[in-house]
Write a structure and sequence with these properties.
By secondary structure, the protein is an alpha/beta fold. The protein has a single domain (about 15-170), classed as Rossmann fold (3-Layer(aba) Sandwich). It has helices at about 15-25, 40-45, 50-70, 80-90, 105-110, 125-130, 150-160, and strands at about 5, 30, 75, 95-100, 140-145, 170. It has a 6-stranded parallel sheet with strand order 2-3-1-4-5-6, sandwiched between helices. Helix 7 (about 150-160) links the parallel strand 5 and strand 6 (about 170). Helix 1 packs across helix 7 (about 150-160) and helix 3 (about 50-70) runs parallel beside helix 4. The longest helix is centred in the middle third of the chain and has 17 residues, at about 50-70. The protein starts with a strand and ends in a 10-residue tail after the last strand.
Length: about 180
């Protein structure tokens, strides 16, 4: 049984990858943004960056939801800071993370191309400012956003089948600049 969070900044492709992994595992997908409090959703729509105090109830709600579901669960969550990931790990034993790593330029381009989304392009920089890379933490796979979706999915399924307690990173920072 796998409990997995696909994480990264807005525009990294978390939802696309999480949907593919959930399908491959015949598991459930949980869209993390659905668990934000209405006040936090309103802030984001208005281009106001969330603070830790806004994220804490969201992380608790999301962690409880992941932990309560039986079987394989793949959720999306920015999980920008180590403290956020630790908060989620405290609620979900053996929780694993897939970090979709992306350049700021590519994230801004992607977020700007989806005008009806909850998250406006003006907040991308604040996510990069808050991001604490999970590379080096146990149970983390790092995949570049520039990889094709199928290549990302193949990497995740191989990792889960092999040794998901290990940390693995599939690229160096230079590969992130591909638009």
């Amino acid at each position: 049984m796998h409990k997995l969070i696909v994480m990264g900044v807005a525009g990294s492709g978390k939802s696309t990858l999480a949907a593919g992994v959930a399908l491959a595992l015949d598991g459930e997908m949980v869209e993390g943004d659905d668990y934000h409090l209405p006040a936090s959703q309103d802030k984001m729509r208005r281009g106001i960056a969330l603070q830790d105090s806004d994220r804490e109830p969201w992380l608790d709600r999301l962690g409880a939801e992941i932990g309560a579901r039986p079987g394989d669960v793949v959720a999306t969550c920015s999980a920008l800071k180590r403290t956020y990931r630790e908060r989620l790990r405290a609620r979900v034993p053996d929780l694993k993370f897939v970090f979709v790593d992306i350049s700021q330029a590519l994230a801004e381009l992607r977020v700007g191309s989806r005008p009806a989304h909850l998250f406006p392009p003006s907040l991308v920089a604040s996510q990069f400012a808050a991001l604490e890379s999970p590379v080096g933490e146990a149970g983390v796979l790092c995949v570049p956003a520039s990889l094709a979706p199928q290549a990302q999915l193949d990497s995740v399924t191989r990792w889960l089948a092999a040794a998901p307690d290990a940390t693995s990173c599939l690229h160096d920072r230079a590969g992130l600049e591909t638009l």
